[in-house]
Amino acid sequence: MIEKTRLAKYLAHAGICSRKQASRLIDQGIVTVNAHPANHIDHVDDSDDIRVNGERIQGAAPLVYFAYHKPVGIDCKLNQTDSSSLIHHLPQTTRVYPIGRLDKDSRGLLILTNDGEFCNQLIHPDFHQPKRYLVTVDKPLDDNFCQTMANGVPVDKHITLPCTVEKITEYQFSIILKQGLNRQIRKMAHYCGYKVTDLYREQIAHLELTPLNLAENSYQQINKSDILKN
């Protein structure tokens, strides 16, 4: 007898989204199981009629991974009706979604995948995968800036985790984060009296954007091992 799988896990394995995102879809009421509104406690298998927005979902999809060079102006929310949405720039060969986000005004490396379990490995705070950014600000960095940022500053009622910050030029620094609060770097810089004028994500875990030589708004298929080394 085939063991049934919890619905959010099934949707993640089918390449629809991560488990966390699947739970949101269930909350939104756009998931049905055998013609009934889905419930978080539903357990399913391939014999069930599972639909998202009326489209039937069945079976685990082949797992794929892409590096994408996001330009400024593209919104990572997958909104079909928004002309600036990333959804209009995704590979057409299979359904994929971004791991984590970059805000609309930021650019650089995104990882696209349909591997929900792997997505959890990269974004869950328990795993602490590093992300490196190059950041330009509106005025010269003072002597205390890097140390203050590295020690942690208040952002949205949290004190940010200790991180690595290094001055690159008079107006630019690099920062390696192991957490991902909303617009975290911009808010950290603002707390220190600076405005971010350019934010570029260069690296996620072991994957670096520069060696890929990807033009902006282009993507390249990669291997899972390029991101997380064994």
From TrEMBL:
InterPro entries: PsdUridine_s_RsuA/RluB/E/F_cat (IPR042092), PsdUridine_synth_cat_dom_sf (IPR020103), PsdUridine_synth_RsuA/RluA (IPR006145), PsdUridine_synth_RsuA/RluB/E/F (IPR000748), PsdUridine_synth_RsuA/RluB_CS (IPR018496), RsuA_PseudoU_synthase (IPR050343), S4_RNA-bd (IPR002942), S4_RNA-bd_sf (IPR036986). Signal peptide: none annotated. Coiled coil: none annotated. The keyword Isomerase applies. GO terms for molecular function: isomerase activity. Keywords: Isomerase, RNA-binding. The keyword Hydrolase does not apply. This is Pseudouridine synthase. Belongs to the pseudouridine synthase RsuA family. It comes from Pseudoalteromonas haloplanktis (Alteromonas haloplanktis). Its EC number is 5.4.99.-. It is an enzyme of class 5 (isomerase). Residues 5-62 form the RNA-binding S4 domain. It catalyses: uridine(35) in tRNA(Tyr) = pseudouridine(35) in tRNA(Tyr); uridine(2604) in 23S rRNA = pseudouridine(2604) in 23S rRNA.
